[in-house]
């Protein structure tokens, strides 16, 4: 009974934590228009703010993996919450471009700690390794809900309540403080440091590590690429109004979130790696429909279907890699996978460069999406073979 109670409380705590992480980590893109106005800089320069969180992932993930092995997942998770809170409070108190760069880097560093230690905590929810992808998908559902609700909450705070955009960071910081306090009382099994931890270099000598890390790099890259360029695609090519575009993007993130609920249910009947392969194979078809269809309704439907099939990709790739690595190597594996999230700072600018070079944003979207999802389908097939060995 105690074991069931612990697992339920751990799941609920992680779910609420990921919801808040989704709110905070996706604020940058939505606040970009306010930054353009207040900081008096070109939007191309300000996109660096949006990239700082992913740059922080790349630089902080490996050290956090080492730290988590030494101090344990709970302490590392709480440290991540403190970093995100301090970054949010700093940006809210001193809103400027330079402060923003520093604060968002600190926030990204904190999110990196949460992703690494959170993934290992999720693995403690069940003793059965095959439950890990399902549990991670269900937990990531709340991250998706936070991402979807972020825009609505920001609009409520800024447009309806007339709160300055910088003060919204205080609101999110208050939520994070509550999560931190609850975490202090969460009972997690005592941490026993591994006397012979696997080094990152040892792991990198194994081919499966590079395959899965590249999978995370590519997936996060294309997800951020969609978040960055689909609004421009909808307004300039499909001629939707700005208001309608925001509504479509909300539906996109909401579909991605609810898709994780559906994916978690499907994984009770279909193996996670098979579902990943099927979804990744379907994704290029859906994005092509969205881009080439002359009908606006088909464009929206195609984008929502892309959100649906993207829903399980990150948690399944991540959990499959950690599962293959094994319990003794899970923290080091999680560190390398979180380092790969730096793809979010790489793919989007390249997509923009290609669309400018070819003067064809539609081509850039279809090209990068197709290449990305074909590789992810390969990762699904590869995960099945590794599991069978």
H/E element order: HHHHHHHHHHHHHHHH
The value of Rg in angstroms is 20 Å
Fraction of residues in H or I helices: over 70%
Q: How far do the termini sit from each other?
A: 35 Å
Shape: globular
Total strands: 0
Structural class by SSE content: mainly alpha
Count the DSSP helices. 16
Runs in which pLDDT lies below 50 for 5 or more consecutive residues are none
Oligomer: single chain
Q: How can the largest sheet be summarized?
A: none
Strand percentage lies at: under 5%
Mean of pLDDT: 85
Structural description of this entry:
With 389 residues, the chain is mostly helical. 82% of the residues lie in helices and 0% in strands. The chain is globular.
Key phrases:
389 residues, mainly alpha
In short:
The protein is mainly α. The protein has helices spanning 2-25, 27-39, 43-71, 73-93, 97-122, 132-160, 168-184, 200-204, 207-236, 242-266, 272-292, 296-310, 313-325, 330-339, 347-358, 361-388.
Topology:
Blueprint: H1 2-25, H2 27-39, H3 43-71, H4 73-93, H5 97-122, H6 132-160, H7 168-184, H8 200-204, H9 207-236, H10 242-266, H11 272-292, H12 296-310, H13 313-325, H14 330-339, H15 347-358, H16 361-388
């Amino acid at each position: 009974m105690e074991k069931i109670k612990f697992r339920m409380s751990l799941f609920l705590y992680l779910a609420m934590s990921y919801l808040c992480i989704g709110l905070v980590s996706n604020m940058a893109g939505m606040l970009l228009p306010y930054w353009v106005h207040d900081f008096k800089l070109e939007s191309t320069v300000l996109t660096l703010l949006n990239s700082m969180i992913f740059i922080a992932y790349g630089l902080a993930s490996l050290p956090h993996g080492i730290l988590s092995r030494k101090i344990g997942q709970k302490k590392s998770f709480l440290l991540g919450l403190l970093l995100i809170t301090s970054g949010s409070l700093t940006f809210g108190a001193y809103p400027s471009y330079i402060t923003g760069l520093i604060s968002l880097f600190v926030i990204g560093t904190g999110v990196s700690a949460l992703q690494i230690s959170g993934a290992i905590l999720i693995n403690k929810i069940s003793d059965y390794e095959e439950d890990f992808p399902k549990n991670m998908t269900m937990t990531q559902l709340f991250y998706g809900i936070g991402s979807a609700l972020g825009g609505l909450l920001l609009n409520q705070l800024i447009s309806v309540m007339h709160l300055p955009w910088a003060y919204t960071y205080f609101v999110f910081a208050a939520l994070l403080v509550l999560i931190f306090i609850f975490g202090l009382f969460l009972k997690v099994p005592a941490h026993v440091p591994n006397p012979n931890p696997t080094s990152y270099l040892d792991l990198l000598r194994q081919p499966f590590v590079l395959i899965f890390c590249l999978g995370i790099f590519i997936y996060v890259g294309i997800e951020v690429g969609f978040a960055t360029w689909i609004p421009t695609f909808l307004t300039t090519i499909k001629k939707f109004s700005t208001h309608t575009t925001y509504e479509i993007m909300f539906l996109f993130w909401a579909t991605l979130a609810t898709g994780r609920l559906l994916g978690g249910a499907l994984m009770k009947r279909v193996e996670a790696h098979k579902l990943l392969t099927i979804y990744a194979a379907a994704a290029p078809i859906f994005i092509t429909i969205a881009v080439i269809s002359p009908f606006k309704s088909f464009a929206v439907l195609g984008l929502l279907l892309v959100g649906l099939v993207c829903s399980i990709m990150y948690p399944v790739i991540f959990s499959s890699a950690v599962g293959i690595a094994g319990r003794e190597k899970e923290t080091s594996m999680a560190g390398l996978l979180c380092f790969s999230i730096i793809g979010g700072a790489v793919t989007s600018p390249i997509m923009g460069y290609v669309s400018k070079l070819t003067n064809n944003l539609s081509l850039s979207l279809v090209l990068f999406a197709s290449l990305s999802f074909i590789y992810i389908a390969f990762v699904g097939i590869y995960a099945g073979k590794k599991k069978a060995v």
